[in-house]
Design brief:
By secondary structure, the chain is mostly helical. It has 19 helices and two strands. β1 and β2 form a beta hairpin.
Length: 366
C-alpha cells in the first residue's frame, strides 16, 4: 500500500515517490512527452506515475529496475534516483496511517525506518526538502507547479492525529509494540501545531523515566529516541542526561549507539526488522561513510550537537585510523570543531568531548 492523498473523495496514492520521479525526470532536462518516448511508455502512464495516481510501488520489480537504469543512462541525478526506495517506504507509512486496515500490521512495526524515509515523510507533512535536495537547481516551469509532495492540510492533521493514537496503543501492547511506539512517537515530533507540541511534551516527559536504562536492555533504543525527541522540542537536558548516564562509560551502549547511527546514516545498508541489531550487530558497517554522516550532522543539526559530538568522539576512539582515510573531511571536521569551541558552544561535558575530538583529529594530522 502506498502513501495516499484524499481529496474530494478521490484517493491519490504514491505522491512522494511520484514527486521524486518528477525530479529525476527534470534532472535529465526532458519534458514528460520526451521522457515517455525515451522510455517507450504511454504518456498517460508516465503522468500517472509522477502524480501518484499510478503508484510506483505497484509497478513490477523488473519494470521499476529498468526504469531506474534507463533514467540513469539518460542523465538523471543519482542522488535523486536513490531516493525512490525511501520515498515508496514513506508512501507506505503514510497510507497505512491514513487508511488503516484490520488485517495489516503497521509498517512501522515491521522494520526500522531510515533517515531518508523520515526525511521523505517530513517533506510530505511539513514541506521541508531533504538536505540532499535543499540546494538543487530548480528548473523553469510553466504555470503553478507543486514545489513539494505536500499532503493537503486535512490529511496532515489526520495523519498526526492517528499517529499519536498509534503510539499510545503500541505502548499499551508492551514489548511487542515497542518498535512501533518508538518510531511513531519520533515521527509525531514533526508536527509543530500547538496541540501536538503540548501532547508531545506531556507524553515524552511522562516517559523520562526510561532515560535511565543501560545499553544491554531492550528499552535502550526507546530511551534514546525519547531523549532526542525532547531535544527537538527544545528540552536539551534529557539528551544530556542520556549521554551521561546511559551512554558514556557503557561499552554495550556505545556499540548500540554507533550501530544505530550506522543504520540511520546508511552505513548499514541491509534493512533491519527490529532494534536488536543495535545490541547484537551487524558489525560490518562502513566506518568512513559513518564518519561522513556524523561530520555532516555536526554542521547541519545543532539541535543534536551533544549527541553528535559524543558519537564522533566514540567513533574515533574506537577506530583511530579513520581520519587518515579522508584527509579533506578530517580538515573540515577539525575546523568545525575549533569553531564550536571558540564560540563556547554546548555545556561543559560537550565542550570537553569536542576538545578530546579535536585532539584525536590533530594527532592524525601531524
Amino acid at each position: 500500500m502506498a502513501a495516499s492523498r484524499v481529496t474530494r473523495g478521490r484517493t491519490t496514492t504514491g505522491t512522494i515517490a511520484g514527486f521524486v520521479l518528477r525530479l529525476a525526470r527534470e534532472s535529465t532536462d526532458r519534458t514528460q512527452v520526451a521522457i515517455a518516448e525515451a522510455m517507450s511508455v504511454d504518456l498517460a502512464t508516465w503522468q500517472g506515475w509522477e502524480t501518484g495516481r499510478r503508484p510506483l510501488a505497484n509497478v513490477k520489480a523488473g519494470v521499476l529496475r529498468h526504469l531506474r537504469h534507463r533514467l540513469l543512462a539518460l542523465g538523471a541525478a543519482p542522488e535523486v534516483l536513490r531516493l525512490l526506495d525511501p520515498a515508496m517506504d514513506a508512501d507506505r507509512v503514510i497510507a497505512a496511517t491514513l487508511q488503516p486496515t484490520e488485517r495489516d500490521r503497521h509498517p512501522l512495526a515491521d522494520w526500522v525506518h531510515t533517515r531518508d524515509t523520515a526525511h521523505m515523510i517530513a517533506w510530505a507533512v511539513n514541506g521541508v526538502p531533504p538536505p540532499c535536495l535543499a540546494h538543487r537547481r530548480k528548473p523553469g516551469r510553466r504555470g503553478p507547479v507543486a514545489v513539494a509532495p505536500l499532503l493537503p492540510a486535512l490529511d496532515r492533521t489526520t495523519f498526526f492525529s492517528r499517529l499519536r493514537d498509534i503510539a499510545e496503543c503500541a505502548l499499551r501492547a508492551g514489548g511487542d509494540g515497542m518498535l512501533l511506539h518508538r518510531q511513531a512517537l519520533y515521527l509525531c515530533s514533526y508536527d509543530r501545531s500547538p496541540e501536538a507540541t503540548s501532547w508531545m511534551g506531556h507524553t515524552l516527559h511522562t516517559r523520562r523515566g526510561l532515560i535511565s536504562v543501560r545499553g544491554g536492555t531492550s528499552q535502550w533504543a526507546t530511551a534514546r529516541s525519547t531523549a532526542t525527541a525532547l531535544a527537538r522540542l527544545g528540552d536539551r537536558q534529557p539528551l544530556l542526561d542520556f549521554i551521561a548516564n546511559d551512554l558514556a562509560g557503557d561499552d554495550e551502549a556505545e556499540t548500540a549507539n554507533l550501530n544505530y547511527w550506522a543504520y540511520w546514516l546508511g552505513s548499514i545498508r541491509e534493512p533491519q526488522p527490529d532494534d536488536g541489531f543495535m545490541l547484537h550487530g551487524p558489525v560490518n558497517w562502513e566506518p568512513v561513510r559513518l564518519l561522513h554522516g556524523l561530520a555532516t550532522g555536526l554542521h547541519q543539526a545543532p539541535t543534536y550537537l551533544d549527541l553528535y559530538a559524543h558519537s564522533l568522539w566514540a567513533l574515533l576512539a574506537t577506530k583511530p585510523w579513520l581520519p587518515l582515510a579522508d584527509p579533506g573531511l578530517t580538515n573540515d571536521l577539525s575546523e568545525r570543531v575549533v569553531q564550536l569551541l571558540d564560540h563556547g558552544e554546548g555545556p561543559p561535558r560537550t565542550r570537553r568531548e569536542l576538545s578530546s575530538l579535536h585532539d584525536l583529529l590533530r594527532e592524525k594530522r601531524t
